[in-house]
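Entry 14: structure prediction run for 4-hydroxy-tetrahydrodipicolinate reductase. Input pasted below.
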Amino acid sequence: MIGRGEAMAQLQFGVIGHKGRMGQALEQAIDEARHSMCIGVDAGGNVGPLAGQCDVLVDFSAPDALSQNLGAARVAGIPIVVGTTGLGEEHFVMLAEAARTIPVLQSGNFSAGVTLLAHLVREAAARLGPDWDIEVLEMHHRLKVDAPSGTAKLLGEAAAEARGIELSANMESGRHGQTGARGQGNIGFATLRGGTVAGEHSVIFAGPEERLTLSHSAENRMIFARGAVKAACWLIGKPAGRYTMNNVLGL
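Run finished. Output tokens:
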């Protein structure tokens, strides 16, 4: 394993969820970056006994496995990057607790472009008044199981943070039938699924007689895998705490 004081050479990655789409992309990205995958764990597997062989864990598995995976990283005393989507409030409590003893980097999206998009959304939401309605539109492939996507929520959180509101209390999604007028100050979400779309996200600011749209298109999920590998390399040697892709990009 690589110590904090050593030059960063070849790192040993533990990939949780390595047989999934993102896991396969991660394996390729790790190889491209000239690092190695020391272990790969999937549903039903236990990363705990093997985590000590790794420099860093990267988790793209399922929400119900997060507690076990964080525990393995804590016992091994190594950083963990979490890209699992569909997390609830209880999972964020787990992340905060783990970050007291190890470096934890969690994100709904590891693309540099999406990270910058969230930054721009935050800037726009802070500067445009409450008469500008905010809507988040996303589309993914037909096999995606959670909605809205982790990226859509990341963008919604950026807008909500800029306006000083809680997203969970000001979120509109799944509109159908006689919904009534749009809630003043709410952030809307629309979800599309189909084909093999890697990821399309737009944040629409709809003001009086004008609109501003900020968008990002992912052409291949390798951008997320490469971003996660970059984040993992960056996380090595950092003190215990919570980190995001903003930290990696210096935003």
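Notes: The radius of gyration is 19 Å. Will compare against the previous run tomorrow.
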